[in-house]
Amino acid sequence: MLSTAEQRTVTVIDAAISEFAKTGYLGTPTASVATRAAISTAYVFKLFPTKEKLFVAALDRCFERVVAALTEGADAAKSQSPDDVLDSMGEAYARLISDRELLMLQVHAQSAADVPEIGDALRRGLQAVTEYAKSRSRADDASVQKFVAYGQLCHLIVTTNIEDATSPWATLLTDGIRHY
User: Of 21, 41, 53, 84, whose CB has the highest number of CB atoms within 10 Å?
Assistant: First the structure.
């Protein structure tokens, strides 16, 4: 069972994910995270002394959830062949980002990657996803690269709302890719 401080930390990180997903690193005051978490701004700063540390904690949690979704996908694959595992991981990731919060947090992290702590956390998260996909699927490097590239294409499709677009350029990008 989590202590009260641990519970509040979880609550603050969840609130940070929601708030940073909406307005990004620069556009989100720590006070809005505190309001969403229903605690004082001073307590947020007690837990996370800087906004960078708060954003990094949110991003770290995001990537933990991504790896957990990939694990669920891999476990549910119809076979343990590298292609089936990667396909099932991709489907699990598509379901995970369907609510857009984790997706938008990643997009905002990419736009703030010049902040050293955020860039480091983003690279750490991408490393964890890539290494997990490689080790769990046992796929070759080219297949893992394609898996990650499709993930980024999914980000583009979802953030630009072109899933149902009928323009030739949009159907070219979305052909064969589905989101939940």
Answer: 21
Q: Please tell me the number of Cα atoms within 13 Å of 150 on its side-chain side.
A: 20
Residue whose pair of structure tokens reads 């736009």 in the numeric block: 111
Residue 147: predicted pLDDT: 96
Report the distance separating Cα 166 and Cα 5, nearest Å.
Answer: 50
Cα 116–chain centre separation:
19
Taken in order of first residue, the domains within the chain and their CATH numbers are: 54-174 (1.10.357.10)
What is the rounded CA–CA span in Å between residue 161 and residue 39? Answer: 34
- Block residue for tokens 């062949």: 81
Q: How confident is the model at residue 2 (pLDDT cuts 50, 70, 90)?
A: low
Tokens 């979880």 — which residue?
10
Q: What is the total residue count of the chain?
A: 180
* Residue with token string 């690269």: 145
